[in-house]
Amino acid sequence: MCDLRKTYDNGTQALKGVSLDVVPGDFFALLGPNGAGKSTLIGIISSLVNLSGGQVEVFGTDLVAHRSEAMRLIGLVPQEINFNLFEKPFDILVNYAGFYGMPRREAEQLAEVELRRAHLWEKAQVMSRTLSGGMKRRLMIARAMMTQPRLLILDEPTAGVDIEIRRDMWRVLKDINAAGTTIILTTHYLEEAEHLCRNLAIINHGQIVTQGPMRELLAKLDVEGFLFDIDGELPAQLPEIEGTTLTAIDGHTLDLDMPRAMDLNRVFAALGDAGIRVRSMRTKSNRLEELFVRLTGPGETLADPAPAAAAPARPAGHP
């Protein structure tokens, strides 16, 4: 993606010269607050939104000059469930592949492969409306993979599901990526992006504010956080430790933010002097949230109210 620009008819500049390079085989996170432009960007990549300027290439194929060829390389999983709830999962996948010209025998074989990978084979012949919310979302992923795309775009794939269901989906997505499929993920669950993705970009006000390897970007933060589980009750007054932020989550848990260069023994000494005994500690997994807030400002939200990629009812990747 090079110098992408998008201006809507009402004059709104959604993208202002966005350039991104997603390498083959990557698991890439695209993050941004509400109205930042990430849904427009996803819409352009998946050919749902026309660009005003710039260039998009999908594995070397120009999206504008060779749209049909480029779209055959892309699978899209929108946020909303958009398959026939009165159709069986096996039939949904086979019919979807048939729409793209795949012979039925080949489609049936591939449907079994994808349903097994999504842990849905035992549900292949039940009505889709009886599936749980997590199963329906895994079915969306399996359907998108029926065209064997080289690039899979996921727009908020785990929105509204609980953590256990999200973790089940993470395993499926890791398997797909490990098999060689490039994945671009948008999500408002920052721990999800940190857990799954190797590289990321943060977009705000239509511009990329940072991009690069996840580890390198997080390593630049000079703050780290810990959670302490405490024996007994916490005192009414917590000790003040210079350079840190110490707060009580409940009567038995403390939340600590401190400079990376600071000696943690100072904290333990101060807690001990205050009569607070630490039973166990763990690192907080909120480093990406800290990076996000620093780059976009406090009070921003990640959720987009109406993702562009989820709007059309046509199958993902259809030219």
Q: What is the H level of CATH, i.e. the homologous superfamily of the largest domain?
A: P-loop containing nucleotide triphosphate hydrolases
Low-pLDDT residue spans: 301-319
Largest sheet: 6 strands, mixed
How many strands in all?
Answer: 15
Write the layout of secondary structure elements.
Blueprint: E1 2-7, E2 13-18, E3 27-31, H1 38-45, E4 53-55, E5 57-58, E6 61-62, H2 67-71, E7 74-77, H3 89-99, H4 104-117, H5 133-144, E8 151-155, H6 163-178, E9 182-186, H7 190-196, E10 199-204, E11 207-213, H8 214-219, E12 223-231, E13 245-250, E14 253-259, H9 264-273, E15 277-283, H10 287-296
Parallel strand pairs: 3-9, 3-10, 7-8, 8-9
Antiparallel strand pairs: 1-2, 1-4, 5-6, 10-11, 12-14, 12-15, 13-14
Helix pairs in contact: 3-4
Describe this structure in words.
Residues 2-230 form the ABC transporter domain. Keywords: ATP-binding, Nucleotide-binding, Transport. Pfam families: ABC_tran. InterPro entries: AAA+_ATPase, ABC_transporter-like_ATP-bd, ABC_transporter-like_CS, ABC_transporter_ATP-binding, P-loop_NTPase. This protein has 319 residues and is α/β, with parallel strands linked by helices. It folds into 2 domains: 2-218, P-loop containing nucleotide triphosphate hydrolases (Rossmann fold); 221-296, Alpha-Beta Plaits. It has 10 helices and 15 strands. It has helices at residues 38-45, 67-71, 89-99, 104-117, 133-144, 163-178, 190-196, 214-219, 264-273, 287-296; strands spanning 2-7, 13-18, 27-31, 53-55, 57-58, 61-62, 74-77, 151-155, 182-186, 199-204, 207-213, 223-231, 245-250, 253-259, 277-283. The strands form 4 sheets. Strands 7-8-9-3-10-11 form a 6-stranded mixed sheet, sandwiched between helices. Strands 13-14-12-15 form a 4-stranded antiparallel sheet, with helices on one face. β8, α6 (163-178) and β9 (182-186) form a beta-alpha-beta unit. α3 packs across α4 (104-117). The longest helix has 16 residues, at 163-178. It is globular. The chain starts with a strand and ends in a 23-residue tail after the last helix.
